[in-house]
Every structure is written in C-alpha cells, then in structure tokens.
C-alpha cells in the first residue's frame, strides 16, 4: 500500500520545487501527536527513511498532509509561495445514516452536476469516511496570491451547487487534507480512505484561470430572501423559553468536528416542525455566539438554503434521529477537557457513559423527552390526512396471524425479492412457484393458496418459458389462472394489471422494468411509489427476480444482502429477501441427466416468518426432455475442489484401481471441467487424509485399511505410509 501512497504524493508534487517541503501532521484521539516535513525530492526518490515515516502512520491515526508545498519547515500560509493544485472538501454530514453507499450516491450526484454544467471534473477523488475530497491538478505552478483567488473562485462556484456540503472556508493555502489510503479514526470504528477516481493528465492553468475567474455568482437581493422565507407552511412561532432551551441544550454538543452535522440535523428538526425562518435564524445565531463559532455567517447561509429548498428536501432532512446519532458519536469520542467547560448536559452524559450506565437507546429517549417537552414532535411533510392510533386503540385491535400465498414462505400482500448468481434457477423457481399457486397445489413441501397469477417476463421470451413448462409438466396442466405477459410497454402493463385483478405478480427480472439505472435511489423510489406500491395497495403480492453481483464462496446472510445489485433502496423497500445458491451440480453424460442442489436462504425477514433455510433438487433429463423439482435438505456449500474430491471417492468406491488419466476421463464424463493443477491438488489432498491410496505403479484406489496393512504395513488407520512424493 505504501507504494501506492507514494505514487499519489508524487503526482501532487510532480512539478513542485524539489527543494520545497511537504508538511505531514499526525493526530490521535486526543489531539496532535507529530508534525514533520519531507523534502519533495525525497518523495520522488522514494527515500527509505521518509517512506518508512509515512507508512508508520497510515493505520490507527488521522494522518494529514499539506496540499501545497512549503518553503522551509513551516506550516503557515506564509510558507506557501506557489502551487499547482486546487481542492474542495465535500462533507456529507447532511445525509441520513452517512454510510459509504450514501456518500457514493452523493459523489455520483456531484459528478453528474459537474458534467451537466460543463464544469471540469477533478483529477483525483478520495473517499474520506463521511465525505470525499476532490483535487484539480494544473500544468504549471501558480503564485500564491493568484492561486488563492482561483481556489476561492472554485469554492464559490461549487458552493452554489451544493451549499450544504462544500465549506467555503477551506481556501487557506496551508490547508491540510487526509493522506490517500490512510484511516479516518474519528469514529467508533476506523474507516479506510479510498481513491475513487484518478486521472493524471493536468489541466492547462490558463484554461482554469479563464474558466474560474470570469465567473461571477449573482447576488441575492435582501427583499427576495424576505419573500422566500415568509411563505408556505413555515410560520410556526416558538416562545422565548422554548428557543432558550434549544440554544442551551444544543450548545452542549456544538463541538469542533461535530458542528456541521449538528447544524444540519437541527435545521432539519426546525423545518419539519414548521418553525418560521426568523426564529430558526435566532436559534442558530445564538448557538454560534454562545459557542464562539467563527463560521456563523456560513451557517446562516446554510440555514437560508435549507429553508429555500424545504419542499424538495422534505423527508430527506435529518431531525431528532440525526441529533441523537451525533450525541452518541460525541460520547464515544475523546473530547479535550477545555471543550467541556460550560457544558453541564454533556458532562452529565459522559459521566453516565463512563460508569457503564448509558446505552444507545438512552440517547434516543433523552432527545425524544427533550423535544416532547418543547412540543417539537411534528412533521409537516407527513400526510395531514393520515390516520393515527392511540396506544389504547392499538391494544384493542384484533391481531390476526400472517396470511400466506405460499405457506410460511410468501406472505400475502408482501413485496419479496429473490436473487442469485447466474444458473441459480431463480427464474425457474419463481415460474414453478407461480404455476403451483395458480393450480392451488403444493410447491415443494409448502401449501399454496389458489391465486390469480401474472408472470411478467422481460428476460427470457415466450419460447424459453414454454420449453421450461413442457420439461416440468408436459401437456398435463391447464388453468386460466396463470397468465404470461412478455413485457414491451409500461402503459400496456398498467392497463393489464388495472383490468384484471391478480393476487400474485412476478417480475423477471427487476432491473428490466426500471426507467433508469438500478444504482440510482431516485429511480428505485419512483418505481416503487409510482408502480409497486399502488399494486400492493390493490391487494397483490409481488415477487421481484433480481441478479447478484459476481462473488464466489460461502457467504453470510449480510454478505448475500450486499450482493443484490443496485441501490441499497432495493433491499430497504422489500419485506422478504431470499437468495438462491447452487450448492452442487452432478452430470451423467451417458444418461443425459444433470442434477442440481440449490440452497434457498432467507436473508431479510421483516415479518418474522418462522422458516428455516432449505434446499431443492432440480433434475434435468435432456434425453427424455423432462425435468423435476423436489424438496431437499440444505446442503453446505462446496467449492469446486470439494465437489471434485467427493466425485473422485465415488468413482473409486467400486474398488477398481484407476490411473490419473482414467479418473480425469470419469470426472469429465460427470460434467467437470478438469484443470490439471486442481486435479493434482485434489488427489494429493485425498491421499494425505487417507481417503484414497496412490500405489507405487501410479494408480489410485479407495482406502481400505486391511489392504493397506497387507501391502504397506500398519499405517494406524491414516494412510500416511502410502504417500509418495509429489
């Protein structure tokens, strides 16, 4: 990894004065640990001592470097005389959850916006943990004064696109940023930084000067702002004691490193409660004054932006949950003593946490009780006509058992997704399940409820589906309750579903029905809200067939969930997620029969259905053009070598002695693609564990203790005396 780090640093300082210095700063949980300088020429020459110093801080520290070279070993702006890099720090603390996937979506949104605006895309993008950092490389060094103007213009321009994410205060020429591929240890679990994009071709400096310095953002007139903030639903006034209490409490947690995130969550809370702009402005301004926050002007601009875009942002804004998340994050961080002064609420919570008397749920209760006491529990973005129930009404309701389309497998009116790799029989499984429901017959060992079924196919075509049905049923099934539709047009599909009421609708495969990319959350949400949800509301049960990303091996349920392709919103919207895995494949070439064991695994279960993982057998007879499906026990996943081992033992179980070539021919006959290296490993492993024996004349036979004792002496039942050198 250190070689990659050095390679990236070389690019940053590719045209810098070799005698200038790169500043490095190392921080631990409690503050700065070390500040050191490395000469640019030592980085280019990969000086072994400098390289070792850099490598030693890549893990377990917050490790930063000065973006621009220093003249002498100083870390101030005066030490920067010129440079060839521009930068931004894109902070994603406004996002709910702030996980890597959400940051990635924001990055893709950012790049898309740049391309739409014909804005130069960055040369280098680093995922930093809770955001990302972008750099533009210039083809010549620019004097400090002009470089500062370029940096300021870049920040102004991009701040117009994403004012809540891009901090205009990072223009200082002595700015330090995270070392590529180092760790972010600010949080409970360290986060590895990642390079998301790299293009080493530098921008002509003249091009960037013209592009950035000729752009002048429009100034908003004060009267336009006033008109903006006093319209719509945001008219609720807070009493002074309410505002005072909010300022008093939130100030406890308005700490460096957490202020941006807390501001976003607080503003989200105020907007969701319909608080007027003047009162929200008063609260934010007083918190900044109380905590000596020098970025008060920027925070008020962020506030204005969020109030302006309140309708579009709506539920995307954080609120009470975001505040609770940040407080818990603070309690799990090392906070310097000097920052705890005049913060009694924080001190009390830290004391409880240190005594082991505080858990995450307690913080949710703390925030909820505070907001309840202030009457801040509304959400103006919720449908005002929605029916709510009191606790008494809820307890008086009749509680019915879950109703099923397929007993203990597919709940009625649920949204289910079935995923798998290629050749995991997910389409055949779903097709046969649908036919069983239409007939009201058992599927595997599960009882079905007779239903009207629509199979919407955008993957295979009529001929393939017809052939599959013929293999499994011949001409022996007749029902009008199973309808097949090859997808061609969304409007026709909507007409069909509206005209005929279906109990079960199967989509094969899910991504073919999307109007856009499966990785875009907006595309997924529009499909759900505009199509799937109305279909569910009409009483239909929905099965989506979906593809996995490519990954081999025995995986946990969590790892399988991550294999579903596309946006994480896909899994978030479904009630049940099932995964199909091919565990075994055995072929008999002479008979024309192939048998597959498929594991069926439950990887998401929102409804708490009591079902165990199971397996099913699919047997395909190409000679007779017949197939069958049967219930089977869950089979532990076997690698290719494991399956080949079992096959070799089975081949030799007749007691015959066979050469390596004969064994290979039998494996090929059983459908294996035999690689000589793999076969060598298989035979060697079986001999070493005593399952087979290699005789001195180069043939193999099954292990039999009495035969081994007769020919090779007592081997104590492990076969080791029969092993030859490989």
State the name of the first-level CATH class of the largest domain: Alpha Beta
Task: Let me know the CATH homologous superfamily of the largest domain.
Answer: P-loop containing nucleotide triphosphate hydrolases
Mean pLDDT: 82
Envelope shape? globular
Helix residue percentage: 25-40%
Q: Count every helix, treating DSSP H or I runs of 4 or more residues as helices.
A: 26
Q: What is the spatial order of strands in the main beta sheet?
A: 15-14-16-17-13-18-19-20-21
Structural class of the secondary elements? alpha+beta
- Please report which band the strand proportion falls in: under 5%, 5-15%, 15-25%, 25-35%, 35-45% or over 45%: 15-25%
Query: Would you report the number of β strands?
Result: 24
Oligomeric category: single chain
Enter the CATH topology name of the largest domain.
Answer: Rossmann fold
Rg over CA atoms, rounded to whole Å, is 33 Å
């Amino acid at each position: 990894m250190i070689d990659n780090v050095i390679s990236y640093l070389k690019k940053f300082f590719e045209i810098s004065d070799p005698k200038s210095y790169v500043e490095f700063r190392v921080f631990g949980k409690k503050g700065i640990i070390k500040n050191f300088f490395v000469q640019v020429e030592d980085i280019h020459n990969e000086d072994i001592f400098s390289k070792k110093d850099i490598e030693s801080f890549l893990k377990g520290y917050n490790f930063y470097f000065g973006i621009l070279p220093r003249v002498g070993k100083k870390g101030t702006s005066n030490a920067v005389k010129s440079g060839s890099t521009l930068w931004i720090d894109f902070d994603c603390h406004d996002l709910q959850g702030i996980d890597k996937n959400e940051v990635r979506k924001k990055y893709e949104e950012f790049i898309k916006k740049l391309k739409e605006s014909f804005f130069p895309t960055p040369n280098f993008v680093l995922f930093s943990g809770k955001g990302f950092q972008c750099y533009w490389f210039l083809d010549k060094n620019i004097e400090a004064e002009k470089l500062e103007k370029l940096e300021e213009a870049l920040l102004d321009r991009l701040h117009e696109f994403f004012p809540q994410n891009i901090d205009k205060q990072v223009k200082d020429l002595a700015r330090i940023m995270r070392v590529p591929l180092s760790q972010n240890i600010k949080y409970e679990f360290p986060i590895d930084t990642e390079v998301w994009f790299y293009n080493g071709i530098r921008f002509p400096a003249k091009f960037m000067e013209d592009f950035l310095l000729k752009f002048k953002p429009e100034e908003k007139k004060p009267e336009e702002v006033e008109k903006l903030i006093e319209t719509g639903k945001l008219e609720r006034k807070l009493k002074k004691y309410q505002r005072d209490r909010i300022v008093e409490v939130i100030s406890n947690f308005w700490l460096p490193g957490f202020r941006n995130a807390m501001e976003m969550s607080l503003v989200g809370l105020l907007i969701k409660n319909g608080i007027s702009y003047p009162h929200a402005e008063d609260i934010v301004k007083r918190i900044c004054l109380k905590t000596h926050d020098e970025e008060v002007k920027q925070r008020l601009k962020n506030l204005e932006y969020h109030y302006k875009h309140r309708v579009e942002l709506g539920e995307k804004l954080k609120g009470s949950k975001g505040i609770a998340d940040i407080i818990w994050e603070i309690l799990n961080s090392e906070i310097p003593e000097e920052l705890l002064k005049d913060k009694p609420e924080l001190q009390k919570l830290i004391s409880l946490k240190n005594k082991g008397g505080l858990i995450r749920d307690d913080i949710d209760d703390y925030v909820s009780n505070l907001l309840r006491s202030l009457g801040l529990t509304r959400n103006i973005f919720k449908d005002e006509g929605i029916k709510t129930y009191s606790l008494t009404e809820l307890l008086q309701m009749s509680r019915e058992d879950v109703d099923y389309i397929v007993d203990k497998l597919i709940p009625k009116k649920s949204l289910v997704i079935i995923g798998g790799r290629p050749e995991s029989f997910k389409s055949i499984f779903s097709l046969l399940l649908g036919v069983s429901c239409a007939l009201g017959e058992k599927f595997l060992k599960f009882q079905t409820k007779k239903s009207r079924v629509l199979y919407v196919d955008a993957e295979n075509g009529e001929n393939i589906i017809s052939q599959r049905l013929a293999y499994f049923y011949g001409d022996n099934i007749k029902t009008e309750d199973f309808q097949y539709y090859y997808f061609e047009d969304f409007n026709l599909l909507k007409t069909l579903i509206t005209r005929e009421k279906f109990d079960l609708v199967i989509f094969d495969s899910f991504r073919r029905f999307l109007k856009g990319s499966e990785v875009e959350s907006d595309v997924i949400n529009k499909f759900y809200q505009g199509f799937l949800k109305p279909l569910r509301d009409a009483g239909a049960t929905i099965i989506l067939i979906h593809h996995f990303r490519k990954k081999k091996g025995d995986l946990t349920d969590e790892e399988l969930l991550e294999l579903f392709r596309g946006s994480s919103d896909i899994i978030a919207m479904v009630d049940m997620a099932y995964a199909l895995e091919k565990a075994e494949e055995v072929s008999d070439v002479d008979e024309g029969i192939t048998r597959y064991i498929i594991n069926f695994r439950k990887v998401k279960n929102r409804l708490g259905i009591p079902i165990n993982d199971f397996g099913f057998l699919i047997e395909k007879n190409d000679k007779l053009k017949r197939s069958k499906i049967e219930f089977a026990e869950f089979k532990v996943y076997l690698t290719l070598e494991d399956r080949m081992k079992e096959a070799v033992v089975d081949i030799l179980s007749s007691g015959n002695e066979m050469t390596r070539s004969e064994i290979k021919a039998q494996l090929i006959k059983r459908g294996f693609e035999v690689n000589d290296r793999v076969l060598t490993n298989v035979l060697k492993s079986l001999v070493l564990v005593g399952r087979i024996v290699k005789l001195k004349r180069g043939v193999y036979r099954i292990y039999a203790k009495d035969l081994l004792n007769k020919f090779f002496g007592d081997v104590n039942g492990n076969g080791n005396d029969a092993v030859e050198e490989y």
